[in-house]
């Protein structure tokens, strides 16, 4: 995500209803075996859920422009990671029915937690179907009112949460899953999503478009957009690409945006030469006319506001494409590790500048270091734990200091361990953890392993301190 983050702090206007169906079979395990309501992330205690691992989401949604109503059903294939009498999913819309392996089961639905009464033994797999209908624009969670739509266009994009507004999910980066979506809207609209366009079936005034990703993803990276779009597609380096620009933009802006979107394949080619093989099998991008205010690294197909075609716009595309490795393929272990996503994406903005006639990452590092005095608030944040009180963490984890100081830390690390070891570290990180997760502690350990140096003082200064790093060679300065 880029730093142009627009946060809406609006209270939810209503709570989803509870429901009770036929009682499930009796459970004979431990006394309190229901899976934990959260996966264990202190920043967002209700995110994700204990006791389950999701393999796939098959989403079937219909969106009605004008009324803003979204209805449908999602089939979830999951496995119990422990014996449970039930489990939770993260979801905001009212739920009418839940089935597990074809049998209707009891459930309770608070504002965010959909609690399902279905016993599973450790290792058991199940197909869970949730049916729902509601107005996503009326709901908020963790201070976020994320639904972005008008009478002509809708885009389901946001971070760190988005899935619960349009499909039930185990909503945390630790649980990646395959995503297939079939979205029904008026036939005059086009639907854009992650992965590959599978089918578009028109029936009378409606069209159902199916997109499918071939690699698992974090729930917030799943997205769909529906509206009037100009489409371009092709194949570069043997890889298909698909880009779209909203026709809600003025004609001249549409043309500019399409020129920028069509740069995606060549910018991705440049990143591959630096980072290594692209971790997915398709790419692209979408420019919306909605007033989103930020760009987001949706897996395989980032979304952007209108940005023009200048150097800043190109660097934003580089930023979001770099996230395909740092954030999408290698997701954070927990939200405290967000600097690993945003720091690397910011670093590659600067490295792109370095390799295209601008100042080097070292020059930009020293410029930024010199800009802020020691008593400036810029330094008064622990980059590797940016939400100290675990309140309003959405604002803290996307604070510009996480981006800028994360990028500075990586530029300084490059100075400290040298280009060769820095490149090896980068390649090892995205290769060894491809399709998985990574934490700050794991990154620090790998950096020390690759370089053979004790970097504890360096990382303390740049990531774990709330003071300005000393201007020393040991800190990648001096």
UniProtKB/TrEMBL annotation:
Signal sequence region: 1-21
The Aminopeptidase N-like N-terminal domain, residue ranges: 109-221
CDD domains reported for this sequence: M1_APN_like
Catalytic activity: Release of an N-terminal amino acid, Xaa-|-Yaa- from a peptide, amide or arylamide. Xaa is preferably Ala, but may be most amino acids including Pro (slow action). When a terminal hydrophobic residue is followed by a prolyl residue, the two may be released as an intact Xaa-Pro dipeptide
Peptidase M1 membrane alanine aminopeptidase domain location: 314-462
SUPFAM superfamilies per record: Leukotriene A4 hydrolase N-terminal domain, Metalloproteases ('zincins'), catalytic domain
InterPro entries xrefs: Aminopeptidase_N-like_N (IPR045357), Aminopeptidase_N-like_N_sf (IPR042097), Peptidase_M1 (IPR001930), Peptidase_M1_aminopeptidases (IPR050344), Peptidase_M1_dom (IPR014782), Peptidase_M4/M1_CTD_sf (IPR027268)
Keywords from the UniProt entry: Hydrolase, Metal-binding, Metalloprotease, Protease, Signal, Zinc
Domain of life: Bacteria
Enzyme class per UniProt: hydrolase
Pfam family, one: Peptidase_M1
Designated name of the protein: Aminopeptidase N
Cofactor: Zn(2+)
Coiled coil segments of this chain: none
Family under the similarity heading: Belongs to the peptidase M1 family.
EC number of this enzyme: 3.4.11.2
């Amino acid at each position: 995500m880029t730093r142009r983050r627009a946060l809406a702090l609006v209270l939810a206007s209503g709570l989803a209803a509870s429901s009770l169906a036929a009682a499930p079979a009796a459970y004979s395990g431990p006394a309190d075996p229901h899976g934990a309501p959260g996966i264990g992330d202190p920043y967002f205690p209700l995110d994700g859920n204990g006791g389950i691992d999701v393999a796939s989401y098959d989403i079937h949604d219909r969106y009605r422009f004008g009324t803003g109503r979204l209805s449908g059903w999602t089939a979830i294939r999951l496995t119990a990671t422990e014996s449970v009498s039930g489990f939770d999913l993260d979801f905001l819309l009212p739920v009418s029915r839940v089935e597990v392996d074809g049998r209707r089961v009891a459930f309770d639905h608070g504002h965010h937690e959909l609690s399902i009464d279905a016993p599973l033994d450790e290792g058991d797999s199940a197909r869970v179907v949730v049916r729902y209908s509601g107005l996503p624009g009326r709901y908020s969670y963790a201070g976020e009112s994320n639904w972005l739509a008008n009478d002509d266009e809708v885009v389901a994009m946001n971070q760190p949460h988005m899935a619960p507004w349009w499909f039930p999910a185990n909503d945390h980066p630790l649980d990646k899953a395959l995503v297939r979506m079939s979205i029904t809207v008026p036939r005059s609209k086009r639907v854009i999503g992650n992965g590959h366009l599978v089918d578009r079936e028109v029936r009378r005034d409606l069209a159902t478009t199916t997109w499918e990703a071939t690699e698992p993803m974090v729930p917030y990276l799943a997205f769909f957009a529906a509206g009037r779009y100009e489409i371009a597609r092709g194949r570069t380096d043997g890889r298909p690409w698909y880009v779209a620009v909203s026709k809600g933009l003025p004609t001249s802006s549409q043309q500019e945006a399409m020129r920028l979107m069509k740069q995606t394949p060549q910018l991705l080619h440049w990143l591959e030469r630096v980072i290594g093989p692209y971790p997915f099998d398709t790419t692209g991008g979408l420019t919306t006319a909605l007033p989103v205010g930020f760009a987001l690294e949706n897996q395989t197909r980032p979304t952007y506001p209108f940005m023009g075609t200048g150097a800043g716009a190109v660097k934003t595309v580089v930023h979001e494409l770099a996230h395909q490795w740092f954030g999408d393929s290698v997701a954070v272990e927990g939200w405290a590790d967000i600097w690993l996503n945003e720091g690397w994406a910011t670093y590659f903005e600067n490295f792109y500048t370095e390799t295209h006639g601008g100042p080097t990452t070292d020059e930009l590092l020293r410029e930024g270091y010199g800009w802020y005095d020691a008593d400036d608030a810029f330094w008064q944040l622990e980059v590797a734990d940016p939400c100290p009180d675990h309140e309003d963490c959405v604002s803290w984890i996307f604070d510009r200091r996480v981006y800028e100081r994360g990028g500075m830390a990586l530029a300084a690390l490059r100075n400290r361990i040298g280009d060769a070891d820095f490149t090896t570290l980068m390649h090892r990180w995205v290769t060894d953890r491809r399709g998985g997760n990574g934490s700050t502690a794991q990154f620090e350990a790998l950096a020390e392993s690759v370089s053979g140096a004790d970097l504890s003082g360096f990382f303390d200064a740049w990531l774990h301190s709330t003071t300005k790093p000393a201007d020393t060679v040991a800190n990648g300065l001096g």
